[in-house]
Amino acid sequence: MNNRLYGNLIFELSREGRRGCSLPKNRFGHHDIPQKLCRKHDAALPECDEPTVVRHYTNLSSNNFGVDNGFYPLGSCTMKYNPKLNEELSRLPQFQHLHPQQPAATVAGAQAVCTLLKRSLCALTGMDAFTLKPYAGAHGELTGLMTIRAWHKANGDEGRRTKVIVPDSAHGTNPASAAVCGYDIIEVKSTAEGLVDFAHLQTIIDEHGKEIAAMMMTNPNTLGLFERRIPEIAELVHGCGALMYYDGANLNPMLGVCRPGDMGFDVMHINLHKTFSTPHGGGGPGSGPVGVKARLKDCLPQHVSPYQGNFAVLMRAYAYILSLGREHIKKVGPLATLNANYVKEQLKDVYELPIDGWCMHEFVFDGLKDKSSGVTTMDVAKRLLDYGYHAPTIYFPLLFHEAMMIEPTENESKETLDAFIGVMRRIAGEANAEPETVKTAPHLTPIGRVDDVQAAKHPVLTYQQLLLNETN
Amino acid sequence: MAKVIEGLYYSESHEYVRVDGDYGYIGITDYAQQALGNVVYVDMPEVDDDVTAGEEFGAVESVKAASDLNAPVSGTVVEVNDALEDQPELLNQDAYENWIIKVELSDKAELESLMDAGAYEAFCNKS
Amino acid sequence: MMYKYFPHTADDLQSMLKAVGADSLDALYSDIPADVRFRGDYDLPSEMSELEVRQLFEQLGRQNRQLVCFAGDGVYDHYTPAVIPDLLARSEFLTSYTPYQAEVSQGTLHYIFEYQSMMTALTGMDISNASMYDGTTAAAEAMMMAVNAGKKQSKVLVSATVDPKVVAAMQTYADGLGITIEMIDEHDGATSLTDFGRRLTAGGVAGVMVAQPNRYGIVEDYTGFADVAHSLKALFMMHCVAADLAVLKTPGEWGADIACGDGQSLGIPMQFGGPYVGFLCCTEKLLRKMPGRIVGMTSDNRGQRAFVLTLQAREQHIRRQKATSNICSNQSLMALFVTVYLSLMGRQGLKEAAMLGYDGAHYLCDQLLQTGHFSLAFDRPFFNEFCLVCDKDIDALQQYCAEAGYMAGVKTGDNMLMLAVTERRSKEETDRLVSLINEYMNTL
């Protein structure tokens, strides 16, 4: 990553009359177009030559940090390596230039990819059927909840079952998805050990049993801990006629270890861009396939997307599974878990570990052990950027005020982890010796900390607005 | 320590009512503004809108959180603090001075289910 | 034997296990109840070398057939300039995460700001978010915006001329939120203004959704629609094909409050269904109701211009169950795609490409009408897509053309054929399609 800021906007490089494309000549003849249906003025798009465009976006890319640049210890994001073979395969013309409504006989290969991927996902998760339609994890959650709602409706139970149980440590998408699906949330507390408080769950079920549609969980949970009592939890939830939903965000450590279908879950979603190595792309496109047990197969909603979801992403995931094969995919979980525990053990003397013991693929620190300097998790995260690392997930889960969630995937070498550990220890040292350096970090990145209050108070969201502000 | 003022009525969701005859000035408490951080936007109802005790009547946004405003009492909005449109940070400067809406109270008995200053202070200390 | 994605040597494993105090990798999972522990191998194929994976995909690829595409119906075969896959493959873009840490994500934030600027320019609106999954879910989000903005109104009217796939997505979301969708009648391929007015007057309407061009490719005249909607306190929303807005009167000019649609027509390959990119734009007034991510400009502590994710307080990870939407991500890389596309095509190029499609479609339509086997389904202006009535077996016709390597549009309704032409189609291809169709018709 280049530490010098490249700050131009493409509009600032635009000059009237320049063009960056070459189009075929019109040999169809000219046909009139009714003026009253046309826009008055051309769209205020830039006018640039091709080399300028290329240079501009190339320079922009150098102010970005990707997994290919360095270590991303982002908890719950599973920033694993994005295999380059998969990129090439997803762009094969025989797949890329297919219209989704082509006759079936002309797309048998593409359909086969979908079928084979579904079969693989079933094998890996213990589910019986999958839909590949959801475009992202949150979209998958919504799809899963709709499936649950359809199930209860088929049982004549829809009007009564209006609530979904969610652990208080859950990610914000869980309650948001439930709300969009029309459900109310009941939060179940976590114990001091960070697990679902079974007694509290029992109370909730006793009080609300017949109103519960489902319980949404991730396992391991957002603290990176395996919910040991999952068989009892599933039994309790099923016992009141509700279903178990598995949030697949933390599926990575389960590869080779456990299958959600065997743990009592009825519906789940997977994040292909997490567990199955498809690139994050700066925030998308991803894919969130939803798996169900056989009895729920007919409840899957048909219209969450018109075709097969993000097909080119599906291709990458399938290539990944084929590349690892059954021999290696079962090592993903254990190696990720080993990496996480290794980092945790070597830092727990300088960072506060609220819950000791072995974790799964990720763990949470609650800030520095020694907080006397006033250096916060935010400061540590920003200082890490100076050392060439991306920050971990910060201020989540909400259970811990100075939360720092670290997940090193199975692709990270011992040397990378040792170097990261070294830097984290160094920053802890800086917090004592020169806290101001940490509090005002980052210093070596293209930009420093931003004024996000100004951004929210006086939003400038387009170039047009910027110009307007400048003339005033 | 968050500031608490005598003579006001407080809700558990950190709104207050300052009663003035048949009217009530409603706003958020000092505790609330501290928790929110820099306020960047206040979503307010319009004059003549009705508010119902316990129901949402607007929202306060900061960079890190967005909180619904819950009406501590019921009534009809007679005035809205327009200054907050351009200067939402007034809520951080002085939450009690800068009320959000003024309502004509429809049921003064509702005040009895709110907390007084002492009870509210104790409530905040427990959180 | 070690695997190419796993760096751990036997030595590494030994010293790391020692450091964590475990005898074996298995010991790390000792907490897990035995009866849920998975043992053995998954029912998956054996590992494949890179060469073998490539061969498999190539073999699967041979079971597909690329057709010369004259179909649209929401997915268009436009040309992708070579610059784009090249830039998108840059790993700083491809392998980066969501730009929560602005200091190391100025690349991403910067292009999203440019994307937002370009989409507002294209749609004639004030604000755009950082993109949505696709056009169908963007319409669903627009519907939710209208209901959230309208106080307590939970009905949304949708024109019967909106793409049924878009309506299906809206209905899917509406069901869970207690929103009622009511369809507005169509008359001869266009939205009935009378029925529009009647249903609005009935009351309780938060918003109205229309399409431009509509599901038949027709460019509708929406004069008066926005005014009627506004007079009854409803929002006016338009679902559009992005590329066509280079030429067509914009949602902004029609008085829309929200504009949405798919950006696939901006050079994104068809990819058998995705990924595409949805866009969602609105007026200044609706800014705080906009779901998804938004990038704003600000300054950093060194006085430099900088970009940052803003207005996040609305987003699901903060508002949780009070969030107005559950969308977590955008289609970031696809937003980059269209940003580069629009930078290359520019003001003039986008218009020219659109007009090539327009002229191509009108040429094709004339040619087909001249064969005597078709009639125009609707006597209304169309852009680059049109419907013909055909009283012969459309499925068989399409199969005939497919066998010759051509996709002759999509079938819509019982006896309508809908065809689209883009700048990618040559006159030779177009003439070939006409002769194929003629051939087929003459065999009957």
How would you summarize this macromolecular structure in one to three sentences?
Chain A has 472 residues and is α/β, with parallel strands linked by helices.
Characteristic key phrases:
B: alpha+beta; OB fold (Dihydrolipoamide Acetyltransferase, E2P); three-stranded antiparallel beta sheet; 4 helices; 9 strands; C: 444 residues; Aspartate Aminotransferase, domain 1; Aspartate Aminotransferase, domain 2; 17 strands
* Cα gyration radius of chain C (Å): 26 Å
* Percentage of residues in strands of chain B: 25-35%
The count of DSSP E runs of length 2 or more, i.e. the number of strands of chain C, is 17
State mean pLDDT of chain C (0 to 100 scale).
Answer: 94
- Interface with most residues: A-C, 195 and 194 residues
Q: Termini of chain B, distance in Å?
A: 13 Å
Assign a percent range to the helix content of chain C: 25-40%
The number of domains of chain B is 1
The CATH C-level class name of chain B = Mainly Beta
CATH architecture of chain B: Beta Barrel
Just name the CATH architecture of the largest domain in chain C.
3-Layer(aba) Sandwich
Q: How do the strands of the widest beta sheet of chain B line up side by side?
A: 1-2-3-9-8-5
Instruction: Tell the overall outline of chain B.
Output: globular
Note the main sheet of chain C. Answer: 7 strands, mixed
- Give the uncertain stretches of chain B in residue-range form: none
Strand tally of chain B, please?
9
Describe the protein in words.
The complex is a heterotrimer of chains A (472), B (127) and C (444). Chain A has three domains: 52 residues, no CATH class; 232 residues, Type I PLP-dependent aspartate aminotransferase-like (Major domain) (Aspartate Aminotransferase, domain 2); 108 residues, Aspartate Aminotransferase, domain 1 (Alpha-Beta Complex). The mean pLDDT of chain A is 95. Chain A is an alpha/beta fold and 472 residues long. Chain A has 16 helices and ten strands. Chain A has a seven-stranded mixed sheet with strand order 1-7-6-5-4-2-3, sandwiched between helices. Chain A has a three-stranded antiparallel sheet with strand order 8-10-9, with helices on one face. In chain A, helix 2 packs antiparallel against helix 10 and helix 11 runs parallel beside helix 13. In chain A, helix 8 links the parallel strand 4 and strand 5. In chain A, 60% of the residues are buried. By secondary structure, chain B is an alpha+beta fold. Chain B has one domain: RNA polymerase II/Efflux pump adaptor protein, barrel-sandwich hybrid domain (OB fold (Dihydrolipoamide Acetyltransferase, E2P), Beta Barrel), CATH 2.40.50.100. Chain B is built from four helices and nine strands, in the order βββαβββββααβα. The longest helix of chain B is centred in the last third of the chain and has 10 residues. Chain B is globular and about 35 Å long. Chain B starts with 8 loop residues before the first strand and ends with a helix. With 444 residues, chain C is an alpha/beta fold. Chain C is built from 14 helices and 17 strands. In chain C, the strands form five sheets. Chain C has a seven-stranded mixed sheet with strand order 2-10-9-8-7-3-4, sandwiched between helices. Chain C has a four-stranded antiparallel sheet with strand order 13-14-17-16, with helices on one face. In chain C, strands 1-15 form a two-stranded parallel ribbon. In chain C, a hairpin with a 3-residue loop joins strand 16 and strand 17. In chain C, helix 5 packs parallel to helix 12 and helix 12 packs across helix 14. At the B-C interface, strand 4 of B face loops of C.
